[in-house]
Each structure stands twice: as C-alpha cells, then as structure tokens.
Design goal:
12 helices, 45% helix, single chain, 6-stranded parallel beta sheet
C-alpha cells in the first residue's frame, strides 16, 4: 500500500507508510499543475470541518499528513486504518532527501534576510547535490507580492518551502493557487528558524511520546484551553461512530 485516503470527521487524512514516503512524494512531484502538502494537527482537523479557506485548502490538498496522535486514535476508534504519524521536521528532511536524490529543486520563502541566508547556507551544506533555485524573505510588503509570485513561477522549483513571515500562513498557497502552474508547496513555519539554528525544534523523543502540546503550553499557558476543542473532538468521534454503526 502506497497511500490510502481516509475520511475522519469529513476531513481527508492520508495514510502513507513510511517505507512508501519517497515514492508518494515522487509521484506527487510528477503530477501536472501546482500541488500542496499539508501537515495536519488535531486543531487543524477540527478547523477543516468548516467552509473557511483553510478548510477548503485541506480538502483540496494533494497530500495530508497527520502530525497528532489524537488523529491516529480517532481513526482507530472509527474502525479506520491508523495512518502513519509524521514529524513535520523529519518529513521535510525526507522531502529534501528526495529532491537531492532525484535532481529536483527547492525554493525557500520565509524568515528575515539574515536568518534566511544562514538557513540556505546550512541546507546547501547538508544537501550539497540539491539545487536551491531561489529564496525570498517573509514579512514582505504586500506591494511586492507580485514580484515574489513571479520569481517563484520563473524558477519553477519542484518544491516551495514556506516558513515564518509568510502572509496568510497555512492558506498562502490556496489563496494564490491560480497564480501558479507547477511546484509542490509545503508550509512548515519553523523551517527557516530550525535550519538557521536560531530556533530549536521539538525533540524526536518529545514528539514520539506525543508530548509536544506541553511544550506549547509552556510557551503559551493559554493553550491549556485547547482541552475544550479536544473534548469536542471526543464527542464528535462518539457521534460519528454511533451514526456509522451497522443496524
């Protein structure tokens, strides 16, 4: 099995075995037109049940990779196959490995100038055989957005990595999708900071144990109130399981 698209609370979630990840990425890159890869948290899943641009973005995405253990639990509770859970940082590294191994190209968008340049130097050092065909800072004024879009179109990168400072954040690509004719777009806000070593990523140990929410709460205590949407999620799972029960 290379990929199976699941429906969890009317939101698409892709089950991609780790061993098939490279082939799934290559197949996606070979598709015509612009593409989008989304890292989906539990909170994203709940937001994607509406009719906002973000919800439409998720539902039209080419690849939706779950990052929350709660999504896996929900799939099992609904008697669906449990998808592979992806650490966004590790997934981005795997995507860059695919680009390097198959002579594909990368464009970096995000971060402030000095941080972006340092991130680019470190990425080049780690992936010396991968071509970076362009970069542009985040936090750019709206007046020059046309230049940003034109630069990406002309560079025709295989992948555009979107990071901090990109306006509209997770919906940047969706709201501009008609302006592009190619490339796969991935939004990972920590990318430029982590690659430049100006920011720390969540450790693999913390992520593997599903404790990344506690790190977020330490940085922002108000996130303790995420317990409320989590309770809503549990109620929705009970409702959908009851609705789909035979007889």
């Amino acid at each position: 099995m290379e990929r199976q698209r699941l429906n969890i609370l009317n939101v698409p979630v892709d089950a991609v075995p780790a061993g098939d990840f490279e082939k799934v990425i290559l197949d996606l890159l070979q598709k015509d037109g612009p593409k989008q890869i989304i890292f989906l948290s539990l909170w994203d899943l709940l937001k994607a049940r509406g009719k906002s641009d973000f919800a439409l973005s998720v539902k039209s995405a080419d690849l939706v990779l779950p990052v929350s253990k709660s999504i896996l639990m929900g799939a099992r509770f609904l008697n669906l196959p449990a998808p592979e859970r992806y650490n966004p940082f590790e997934a981005v590294i795997s995507i860059l490995c695919v680009l390097e191994s198959h002579n594909r190209t990368l464009y970096l968008l995000g971060g402030k100038k000095a941080v972006l340049m340092e991130a680019e130097r470190n990425v080049r050092a780690t992936f010396p055989n991968m071509q970076i065909v362009g970069r542009f800072t985040g936090y750019y004024p709206k007046a020059i957005e046309e230049d940003v879009i034109t630069a990406i179109r002309k560079a025709t990168p295989s992948v555009v990595l979107l990071s901090e400072g990109v306006p509209d954040k997770k919906t940047w690509f969706y709201r501009r999708r008609d302006r592009f004719s190619a490339s796969a777009f991935v939004y990972y806000p920590e990318a430029i900071g982590v690659f430049s070593k100006t920011a720390k990523r969540i450790s693999n140990r913390t992520f593997d144990k599903g404790r990344e929410i506690w790190v977020e709460i330490l940085h922002n205590p108000f996130k303790v109130f995420l317990i409320l949407p989590y309770l809503k999620y549990l109620i929705l799972l009970l409702f959908y399981r009851g609705r789909n029960r035979p007889g």
